[in-house]
Amino acid sequence: MKREWSIEAATQALTELRPLIALLREQRAALEGLKQELLRLRRLERAGARPGGSDQSDLQAIDSDSATQEALVTSSLVEVRIRALVDQMQASVDRVASRGIELRDIERGLIDFPAAAFGRPFLLCWEEADGEDVSYAHSLGEGFGARLPIGEFLRRHAQPERGI
To answer: pTM for the complete prediction?
Structure first.
């Protein structure tokens, strides 16, 4: 059974989640940089040139076998770094998920905490721009665009005939 978060517990969890989201954002940016580097190296491999230059105009014509070998070794190292970074990121995401928290968007710092009121499940919703406290909620089938301040959400959904 999934954990149901209180507003207070979700807000308290932000102390740990904010730095983790910032780290994931940094890792994602590093990953994008590594992907670009890998693309550049693969272009060099195809061109048979030394991987020291920054673009095609920097390519030096050299023995294609040794140039290709050098680019292959360098691109292999970048691939290892990419895999390691992806593994680190996945471990962080898994750590969040193991607590029953749903990480929706790394860039925005958007997360949902499962909760329940009036016997019905819903999601407490927080994004980094919200500040220090979890203060929004939305129904399970709805997303960020349907979120409301928690008090208003609970008032609207307190009536038994209305689903959360």
So the answer is: 0.76
